[in-house]
Amino acid sequence: MGKHREPHRPPLGISVEAAAFGIIEVAAANMSRAIRSVTTEQGHDVAQLALFAFGGAGPLHAAEVARESGIGRILVPQEPGTMCARGALLSDVSLDFVRMQLTPATPGAWAGACEALHVMVKEGDDWLAAEKVGPALRDFDLAIDAHYAGQSHEIRVPLDSVDEAGLIDFLARFGQAHKASYGYENPGQPVYIVSCRLRAVGRVPKTDGPPHVGGLSIAQAQVAERSVYYGPAEGWCVTPIYRRSGLPVGDLILGPAIIDEMSSTTVVLAGQNAIVDAFGNIVITTERR
Fold first, then answer.
1. Buried-most residue among 183, 201, 250, 271 (CB within 10 A)?
2. Which pLDDT belongs to residue 220?
């Protein structure tokens, strides 16, 4: 007699599709939590922001992350999988300088902070000169980290210039920055200067690329269609697959849809739509939960 074989049972008691979708949901929730920590928890309205999706996997998860976070627009640049490499080639060169202060923001301490900033500007200028950056392409971003007495976290306050008479303006800016981040300011509480900062920036000249030329029609850009699983609420849906390079500029793409290219895959969910703009970006408008 042949050996009896038990039927295959999934180890989790759910289908492979349900397990895969659960993994995606957990990943989207974790990314959304990280977004909220630097937006809503810092006083920023995500409804006024766009989600910039780059890297090989960014456009794959962006639609679900935007829904989870309450972001209404997604921007997917051209060739998102090579975005970091191209950014490294085109980014400005920069170096950060810092001087610790750890002192109450008194007139005497402010004079010391201004002196430290002047020294760092000279150091930054010397570094940019050594990097062969011309004087016209040199920028210096000034800031001071500070906090109220008794706090253990500081706020970075940008400065327009080194102004020896600018203590009152700095304290006003600190109060505004604290209110923007935490919802309140406390004018009667002493302020402590923690550190003075300078970023020396050498601007790299950039040229505009050629205008984006898309395809002739959405129909011609479609290369296939296949059944895709979108979770227990929507289940399996027959989804058109588009070649990104063939998409025309300005024509509306209705979700669900998948847009393929060499370096990434962009997912447009049901209830969302997308267009390719004049710069070749995919702009997705997403419903918010």
1. 201
2. 95
- DSSP string across 188-230: TS-EEEEEEEEEEEEPPP--PPPPP---S-HHHHEEEEEEEE-
Q: Per-10-residue mean pLDDT for the chain, 289 residues long?
A: 51 83 92 90 86 92 91 93 85 94 94 96 96 95 95 93 93 93 89 96 84 90 94 91 95 95 94 93 80
Say how many C-beta atoms besides its own lie within 10 A of residue 42's C-beta.
11
pLDDT of the residue at 211: 81
pLDDT of residue 203: 94
Q: Please give the model's pTM, rounded to 2 decimal places.
A: 0.68
Cα–Cα distance measured from residue 253 to residue 255, given in angstroms and rounded to the nearest whole number: 7
CA 183 to chain centre: 23
Q: What is the CATH number of domain 92-202?
A: 3.30.1490
User: Tokens for 170?
Assistant: 């700095």
DSSP codes, the chain: -PPP-PPP--TTSS-HHHHHHHHHHHHHHHHHHHHHHHTGGGT--GGG-EEE--SSSHHHHHHHHHHHHT--EEEE-SSGGGHHHHHHHHSPEEEEEEEEEEEE--HHHHHHHHHHHHHHHHHHHHHHHHTT--GGGEEEEEEEEEEETT-S--EEEEESS--TT-HHHHHHHHHHHHHHHHS---TTS-EEEEEEEEEEEEPPP--PPPPP---S-HHHHEEEEEEEE--TTT-EEEEEEEEGGGPPBT--EESSEEEE-SS-EEEE-TT-EEEE-TTS-EEEE----
Burial class (CB in 10 A: 0-12, 13-18, 19+), 147: middle
